[in-house]
Design brief:
14 strands, seven-stranded parallel beta sheet, alpha/beta
């Protein structure tokens, strides 16, 4: 597989180096969580804060009447209600069209100049198709950037949902950050039990919300999730073996040729794409001055972005995998094998 030539200056094989992964693109935050988790209340409270101003809202509800749409429309000047059902198939197309329309309306002044988009999924939705939509539509990728997937679990009923509902477990497993909501309606023991259950499913940072109120930075900060998850994995090794879902981190001490990394990920996607729920990380690529941000959702890879500089003194490649019935050892063995085959001599 050929690697694109280097052009010198501030350009690189992945385009212009960026200070942040999203560059100048509009950040998109996806809020997921099982039915009754408190997603709408969380978003309404965010919109009341200065940090939440200038936010466009996209809502996907399961039902014929858009109740959440009615509740949020008064809080945002740009609100879109997607079709009935889960964010997949037809509704995925609706999401693509809605984001395109929002961007066009913003450019032409038909809606206020929003700075970010928040997507609220149905309580029954697998958030994977949303992530795939943002990754696979190249036109959308030029204008929008997935900033974070936020999963909400309510303190009174979240533990029961996680024990009984596979959709709720999937939402937590895929999340970058987790909010435990309605802590004002549960005792400390219930919150502690739910926190422990979430910890069995994910190494994502966890914060609590009372009456929907939470520090906006936890929802909107761009760099919060990866550093915290890598640190958790580095200290606790493989994490979250529950209901077939596993989360683990893989590290490489030496820079990799991009072709080697790309080939290894291509093999993984071809053989186990359906079980490769999500991969995020920073890759040290031979010939690049900064790390390359990578993000894979099942069979789909987001556009790689090279940063101008590493976020800290650690120059190792670090990848956080969220998988189904796929362990850390064979993934490490695959990368080792591909690296050995590609090595000269």
């Amino acid at each position: 597989m050929a690697v694109m030539p280097f052009a010198g200056g501030d350009t690189a094989p992945f385009g212009r180096r960026q200070r942040r992964a999203r560059g100048a693109r509009i950040p998109v935050t996806v809020v997921t969580g099982f039915l009754g988790a408190g997603k709408t209340t969380l978003i309404r409270e965010l919109l009341k804060t200065p940090e939440g101003a200038d936010t466009a809202i996209v809502i996907n509800e399961f039902g014929e009447i858009g109740i959440d749409d009615a509740l949020l429309r008064a809080s945002s000047d740009a609100t879109v209600l997607l079709g009935n059902g889960c964010l997949c198939c037809t509704v995925r197309s609706d999401l693509q069209e809605s984001l395109r329309a929002l961007f066009a309306d913003r450019a032409q002044g038909r809606v206020p100049n929003f700075r970010r988009v928040v997507i609220e999924t149905s309580g029954l939705a697998d958030p994977g198709p949303v992530l795939q939509t943002l990754a696979s539509d190249r036109a959308l990728g030029e204008e929008f950037h997935l900033q974070a997937l936020i999963a909400v679990a309510d303190a009174p009923g979240g533990l029961r949902n996680l024990e009984r509902m596979p959709e709720a477990r999937q939402q937590i497993a895929l999340a970058d950050r987790v909010v435990i909501s309605k802590t004002d309606r549960a005792d400390a023991a219930a919150v502690a039990a739910l926190t422990a259950c979430i910890g069995d499913l994910s190494a994502a940072p966890i914060a609590t919300a009372s009456h929907g109120a939470i520090d906006p930075a936890f929802l909107l900060d761009e760099s919060l999730d990866l550093a915290a998850r890598v640190a958790a994995h580095e200290h606790n090794h493989a994490h979250a073996h529950s209901h077939g879902i596993a989360s683990f981190a893989v590290f490489f001490d030496c820079a990799l040729p991009w072709a080697v990394f790309e080939e290894a990920m291509a093999v993984l996607r071809a053989l186990r794409g359906a079980d490769l729920l999500r991969v995020k990380g920073l890759v040290a690529v031979a010939g690049c001055q900064g790390p390359v941000v990578v993000h894979v959702v099942q069979h789909v890879a987001h556009r790689p972005v090279e940063l101008q500089a590493w976020p800290d003194g650690d120059r190792r490649s670090r990848l956080v995998f969220i998988t189904r019935d796929l362990a850390k050892a064979p993934v490490e063995a695959l990368f080792a094998a591909v690296t050995a085959i590609a090595a000269p001599g």
